[in-house]
Amino acid sequence: MRSAEDFYQGATPEDILHAQEAIRWADHLLIVYPLWQGHFPALFHAFFEQTFWPGFAVESSNGGMPKKLLRGKPARVAVTMGMPALFYRWYYGAQVRRYEFDSLELLK
Prior knowledge:
Layout: H1 4-9, H2 14-25, E1 29-34, H3 42-51, E2 58-59, E3 67-68, E4 75-80, H4 85-92, E5 98-100, E6 105-107
Parallel strand pairs: 1-4
Antiparallel strand pairs: 2-3, 5-6
């Protein structure tokens, strides 16, 4: 996506369509990424932003609560990093968080 127009009206890239189909097929998701300056890499962020789009992860609704299309699909997240976890928690003030597709929100 190179413009706002692509974001809202562009065609979904073929690679993203393949990823969405694999996610629909999977019984369980394992998401693994490297920690990069305290966060996930920008390319990974872009992938998630395009993959979990309305119509795939949620059903858009006008004014009401959207229907959650991935409800009940379990997922685990593994983060790799080049520093001890204790230092990471101390330096970034990080808390362990868990993402659940049932609620589509971060839970503390």
